[in-house]
Design a protein that fits this description.
Structural class: alpha/beta
CATH superfamily of the largest domain: Glutaredoxin
Number of domains: 2
CATH architecture of the largest domain: 3-Layer(aba) Sandwich
Number of helices: 5
Distance between the termini: 60 Å
Largest sheet: 6 strands, mixed
Length: 197
């Protein structure tokens, strides 16, 4: 009887240890995924003239590339709203939403798209097959660019701390500071899904 109890106890201890190791490994994998940035844009130093986004001399432009099915991008939209609310009202904001041209109408209308469409002072541009993303040389959902009134790049990167995490971070803080003071440049890692998938 004592031997049987010892065996059962050993099995329970081994199972508990296995469970603990498995949960720990899963937690580490999730944290590693959240903290791994996407591919950074090969951003142009000047406004891309081939873009369909209008640019008027003297007006600053904030452009964000979004994959509507990227769950990480909800946090990017939340941060974008905070930037818009704390930046000069003259800042023109564009959210460029990736859409494969052969997909059915409405494919892009996810919660991310709906949240973007409710942003104040923001224009939504559907990006068939990632044409605009290619022009801006962006690869990752959440990629954000700030161009000044002369068409010079002032910021390139993401505006979240981790994948899917809204809240204070240096990316969004730098965009707000540059837009407010109209001085300086900055880059920040971008956390999100690949756009063309």
């Amino acid at each position: 009887m004592t031997t049987r109890r010892a065996v059962i106890s050993s099995i329970l201890i081994a199972a508990a240890l296995l469970w603990t190791v498995t949960v720990g490994a899963m937690f580490r994998a999730i944290r590693a995924f959240e903290a791994t940035p996407g591919r950074a844009a090969d951003a142009l130093d000047v406004w891309p003239s081939a873009s369909h986004i209008p640019r008027a001399a003297g007006e600053w432009r904030l452009v964000m590339l979004i994959h509507p099915h990227c769950s990480c991008s909800r946090a990017s939209i939340t941060e974008l709203q905070r930037i818009i609310e704390k930046s000069p009202s003259s800042l023109q904001t564009y959210v460029v939403v990736y859409r494969p041209k052969d997909f059915p109408a409405g494919w892009e209308k996810t919660d991310v798209f709906v949240a973007a469409s409710h942003l104040p002072r923001t224009h939504i541009l559907l990006d068939n097959d990632g044409h605009e993303a290619s022009i801006f040389r962006g690869f990752t959902s959440g990629q954000t660019y700030l161009y000044d009134g002369d068409g010079k790049l002032r910021f390139s990167g993401g505006i979240t701390l981790l994948r899917g995490h809204a809240g204070f971070n240096s990316g969004s803080a730098e965009v707000m500071e540059i837009a407010r003071t109209q001085g300086g440049t900055a880059k920040h890692p971008v956390f999100g899904c690949a756009i063309n998938k």
